[in-house]
Amino acid sequence: MKLWATKLIIFLYLTTSTQFSQLYKLPIFVSHFIEHAQSDDLIDEMVIFIVHHYGGHEVDEDWQTDQKLPFINIEIAHIDHSYLPIVIVEIPKIDKKVLHEPISSFNEDQIYSYYLNSIWQPPKQA
């Protein structure tokens, strides 16, 4: 199950991130690399091959084969289409009334304390 899922994910990644038509050219890449391989050191040969063919390649005797390699000529531009909705946010305007009246603070003279004297008596000394 894990192997099947891994192959599916790799296939989906390759088909969505590259042009699928370029993947069809991979056998040409391998056969052309085998033609150019001269020594047993595979890594060095691959580096020389890639630098020669993909890093400013001049016209030579196998130019027609070089043009068939993947990612040399890209026929169709890969365009990802996405839809981003346009969201317009309207902030409601709140009208505030500014009061120009003076603010009265706490004043003990405005408290009617005539009934408080009858309720509360301070403690008396014995």
Going by helix content, strand content and strand pairing, the class is mainly alpha
Q: Give the CA-CA distance, first to last residue.
A: 95 Å
Number of helices: 6
Main beta-sheet annotation: none
Principal-axis shape equals rod-shaped
Oligomer: single chain
Could you give the order of the helices and strands? HHHHHH
**Strand-residue proportion:** under 5%
Count all strands and give the number.
Answer: 0
Mean pLDDT: 77
List the helices and strands and how they pair.
Layout: H1 2-17, H2 20-23, H3 26-36, H4 42-54, H5 63-66, H6 116-119
Structure description:
By secondary structure, this protein is mainly α. It has a domain at 2-66. The chain is built from 6 helices and no strands. The chain has helices at residues 2-17, 20-23, 26-36, 42-54, 63-66, 116-119. The longest helix has 16 residues, at 2-17. The chain is rod-shaped and about 120 Å long.
From the structure above, extract its key features.
126 residues, 41% helix, 6 helices, 0% strand, rod-shaped, mainly alpha
Outline of this structure?
The chain has six helices and no strands.
